[in-house]
Amino acid sequence: MLLIADKSFSSRLLVGTGKFPSGEVMRESLEASGTEIITVALRRIDIAQPEKDILRFIDRNRFTLLPNTSGARDSKEAILLAHLAREAGLGKWLKLEVIPDPQYLLPDPIETLKAAEQLVQEGFVVFPYIHADPVLAHRLADIGCPTVMPLAAPIGSGRGLKMREAIRIIIEQATVPVIVDAGLGSPSHACEAMEMGADAVLVNTAIATAEDPIAMAEAFRLGVEAGRKGFLAGKAEEKLKAEASSPLQGVIYGTS
Amino acid sequence: MALHEKSPPSPSLSKRGTEGGILEQAGRLTRQRFGRTIQLYAPLYLSNECIDICRYCGFSLENKITRKTLSVDDTVREAEHLLNQGFKHLLLVSGEHPRIVSPKYLKEIANHLKPKLASLSIEVAPFVEDDYRELVQAGVDGVVIYQETYDQKRYQEVHLAGPKKSFERRLQAPENAARAGVRRIGMGILVGLSDWQEDLARLIQHIRDMKKKYWQTEFTISLPRLRPCASDYEAPSPVSNEKYLQMICLVRLALPDVGIVLSTRESSEFRDQLISVGVTHMSAGSRTEPGGYLNPKEAEEQFRIEDKRTADEVAAAISSRGYEPVWKDWENIL
């Protein structure tokens, strides 16, 4: 079970809700992914027009909703969005995104830490989206974030674990669950992150923009499950030279 | 009078494009960056008063048309009509008249509209940095300003009088807006005025330079084609549908993360085709005369629109192409 804050989850795949071709496809993809936690951009939510709102496709009794602060360029804006989420009745769980660069969509570590400090104090359960920076991960865990979400590669790039070494250090040192977020382009990338020991992964673009998002959602579910099992099973040691699976020694010469 | 081809591109065009890979590549890049989504917005024309004489524009001072400027109350009523259709992103448009369409007038409108909307942009005369800053404080988050053409000789030929005659003043406006903290800046050319390849190359370079310098600003690009209007100006360099499609693809390849805006100047059939190529923002159900949503034909339109479908019809067409029409993608508290 994945334990975050006061909740436990069977699924280790978190799914984003942007970029889907329709609400119906999104709903079926969420189903196929087996996810229990989904992120929704606050800027997409329109409480005033429920008939045209993205939330109408999401069963909030089934999924833990993680509204995100995408669009915020600094801590002040992120905090404003967090307050909006609270006032809109979206709960206190929040994915903190502070992104000043619209081109590579990379997070601002300083403003993220600043916003996280205040929001944690206000009682929010903050999931911070960060660079794969082990020191920042420590700092965020120390102030009370129940998880950290380092990026594998820029959002939507599908480039896989480009920050592999830094993520390895974060996982090794973490005192809170590590959710690898952003840049995972295929189920094998998700599998690889889980094999490394990540506690969970978050995927959006790779599922939403696939030719068949529903099938891809299922593939990611399987990738995450395989990776987790692989991690728990303990990987055999790597060697430079071949070593026969069925050793010949003792067969030719005998041992008795 | 047809200023450009109105028919959708033939199947052979799509085939040729696919063979070259450019259509497929542009579509793929767009889906990766923006997903299968199209954001909808509506233009709200405030005034057709204008002190510029521009040969191609229906609002040109020398055109004998019925002039009208909306009061703040009129504007709010027009906006509410659009809100009832589902729009949350509005673009305020007007001619250039410093006394009538002043920053003060726009600020007052922004103060009234902003609490009702997700996003408010303006497409009006260029302003200085301080004016833009005040407009940002009033709630304007987007500024659209087209250079029309980067060909200075042609620019002078078509802008005969008025402040718009200054090529440099217009060129400076996007920087003024960016320095003032405007979040989204729309840039573009008026396609048909000059050689499209030259103009497009310069526009792309302009946006690339802006992106480096103002790295926190989002940019969109728009390529409006000259349309029939009160002026009888003939486009000197008309662009066919085939070439227009090529332009959209080239923009996407050159600027993968820049939104591409498509207005109702294009035909419904052609707009539908462009959905899967690179377009990310579309207007719908537009009127181009001030007050045109509630009191059509009381004033002259800027140009004749080609896609006359309602907003819901456009949204349905987007859905039928396997894309999601997005009505809200911003928060007005930002």
Descriptive notes:
The complex is a heterodimer of chains A (256) and B (334). The longest helix of chain A is centred in the C-terminal third of the chain and has 21 residues, at 213-233. In chain A, β7, α4 and β8 (149-150) form a beta-alpha-beta unit. Helices cover 35% and strands 15% of the residues of chain A. In chain A, the strands form 3 sheets. A 5-stranded parallel beta sheet of chain A has the order 5-4-3-10-9. Chain A has 8 helices and 10 strands. In chain A, 48% of the residues are buried. Chain A is α/β, with parallel strands linked by helices. Chain B has a single domain, classed as TIM Barrel (Alpha-Beta Barrel), CATH 3.20.20. Chain B has 11 helices and 11 strands. Chain B has an 8-stranded parallel beta barrel with strand order 1-3-4-5-7-8-9-10, surrounded by 5 helices. In chain B, strands 2-6 form a two-stranded antiparallel sheet. In chain B, α2 crosses α9 (241-254), α3 packs across α4 (103-113) and α4 (103-113) runs parallel beside α5 (129-138). The radius of gyration of chain B is 18 Å and the shape is globular. Chains A and B meet through α2 of A and α2 of B.
